[in-house]
Sequence to fold (349 residues):
Amino acid sequence: MSRLDQLRRAMTRAGIDALWVSDPANVRALSGFTSPKDGKVLVTADGATLYTDARYTVQAQEESGLPQVIARPPETYSHAAGMLGGGRIGFEADSLTVAGLQELQKHWSAATLVPVHGLIQELRAIKSQEEIGAIRAAQDLADRTFEEVRPLIRAGVRELDVALEIELRLRWAGAEAAFETIVASGVRGAMPHGSASAKVIEDGDLVTVDMGARLGGYNSDMTRTVAVGTPSAEMRRVYGAVLEAEETAIRAVRPGLRAADLDRVARDVLAGHGLAEAFSHSLGHGVGLEVHEAPGLRGVSEDVLQPGMIITIEPGAYLPGVGGVRIEDLLLVTEDGYEILSHAPKESV
Ligand code: ZN
Ligand code: ZN
Fold:
């Protein structure tokens, strides 16, 4: 069944006659249009239309699998109103602004506007073969880039030099950084999202590098923590514990497993090493058109792993004033288990 047909089923279950799609990644997923911040999609029971403006007439024709209407607000809304009539129209409560909702209310006064959450995101969690290929290609590039830059991570080099080298190489390869590259060394490793700074990497530092490539619109995500010289016995112990948690969680991945239970697997390992408090974020997330998307791998998640999901497993331990470790791999959930998509070596420290 096509994603659009799956969506119509979900719309029926949600009790809506049509859906106004404003989330850029959702617009792209439905239409193929690669400038989705400047597009919207209207999905009805028997049609789907891409709305964008005259800057994109040619591009939309080339890219969009949906019929296009070139218009700017308020014409956009009046055209859509002509297709809708009354009925219950869903809008994406997680992305539409209050001002955007007021615009819809003004122009679609005959309709009942209904907030919906995650309808398309749920469908996007299961990747098509083409999407799996695109994410695999992004991760392969990230693996090559990390291995090329790895020799640069040594005493005397600034964190931001490492990050810049990674991002330049991604650009040269026709990709870009999926997110601001994290390079956090020594005590800065205690910040889970320590953006690369002017700090000079020192002998004995652990260095956490969290990087992703965005290629053809699809993202990858991977973290390695590497040693420069010989870290303290305490940080080597922490590294071993995080690696054990990460590999134990990976081995548990299979379709049908609750994401919350997988989160628990890693958390239990770290707790066994006295590091329960130090693991201060969720275990992982889905990756696709967005770096963070469904499913959510955390204690309160209701998601269940299914074949075709692409997820990260990324436990960490962060000791303020001392340092930190995170190790993250990218995995495809398969019919009988998993395939690891990230191949950059995990070093022993
Ligand atoms: Zn990451
Ligand atoms: Zn991640």
Q: What stands out?
A: The longest helix spans residues 129-149. The radius of gyration is 22 Å. The chain has two domains: 3-123, 129-340.
